[in-house]
Amino acid sequence: MKKILSILSLITLIILGINNIQAQDKSIVLDAEYTGDFLYNVGGLKNGGGYLGYAKMGMDADLWNGASLYLGGGTTHGIVPTETLIGDYQVADNIEAGNYAFMEYLSLQQSFGRFSIKIGLQDMNENFASLDAAGEYVNSSFGIHPALSSNMSVAIFPITGLGAEIHFDINDNWHLQAAAYDGKIPSFEDNPYNLNWNINKEEGALFIGEAQYITENGAYELGAFYHTAEKKYGIYANVEQEIWNAGSRSLKPFAQISYANGETICDNYLHLAAGLNLESVFFKDNNDSMGLAFTSAFLSGKKTETAIELFYKYQITDNFMIKPDIQYIINPGGMDFTVDNALVGMLRFAVVI
């Protein structure tokens, strides 16, 4: 009952806030997206398949000069293939979460020229340790380095957390950003709707900083992180750069590397990933793309797990996309002989409103 009342109270506040914003003639942008995956696995823990999905809705509202409020929620449902079928460490499907409904974003951002600050409930991976080219892949490790996400409590999908981010644009190419996040993100069992937020000094904080050099055709990122309570730290680097362009067709390789402080403290002390993306494969209107990449997690006391992924993406309309995807996972979970290599095939679709 308390959870229901909390959600109803939050909805009431949202409605009141929207009415107030509309009364002041401010702009509001609503967005919604649904992603679904049909998946089948051979090898790993066992053969089998099923369906999983992720729906999200958001509202971005201009408040006053340079200020905006973003509010968003999501729901996930369906099978959990890593847990029940594959047994991999890096999580082959980046929308896997189980059957939950939750708040994802409730953040306020204020800009002052080249400087901006954002506070509230947010996803660290939205602005840190991410690449556009790597983000096209389905395996979770291409989105957030497992040397970060697997070794410590991190505010990322599906359970985001409280944080404060600072961004500074030195010029059009050079950018600096830093953030501090809640050091203990509770599980869905303790926080089923992600409405139970708590910060205390015993849980510590996760600090992260990143320098970026961004051009029209490339991105170079160097970052570092430190968790005060868990005494874990590390560094990471990302790079993507277009190397060939012929009209609408282009080739863009990317690479990711991260290191966390040693085999004795962190499960995944080293992560390496690289890939190559081709735009406009069969069509000359940028409606399709494909990519081939690998991601390797070096695990303490275990074998290295490596996932090789191939995808093809076709943007049928501005609002509808399909993406056949196949992954071959070597040493799932770093286990020796107890878990077979896995071959995972899936068909992803996404509808954006």
Question: Any key phrases for this structure?
Answer:
353 residues, Porin, 16-stranded antiparallel barrel, 3 helices, globular
**Estimated helix fraction:** under 10%
Return the CATH topology: Porin
CATH class descriptor name? Mainly Beta
The CATH superfamily turns out to be Carbohydrate-selective porin OprB
Residue ranges: pLDDT <50 for 5 or more in a row?
Answer: 1-16, 21-25
| Alpha-carbon distance between the two ends | 32 Å
Structural class: mainly beta
pLDDT average, as an integer?
91
SS elements, strand count: 17
Radius of gyration: 20 Å
Order of helices and strands: HEEEHEEHEEEEEEEEEEEE
> Can you tell me the number of structural domains?
1
CATH architecture: Beta Barrel
- Number of helical regions: 3
Q: Main sheet: which strands, in order across?
A: 1-2-3-4-5-6-7-8-9-10-12-13-14-15-16-17
| Share of residues in strands | over 45%
Largest sheet: 16 strands, antiparallel, barrel
Based on CA inertia axes, which overall geometry fits?
A: globular
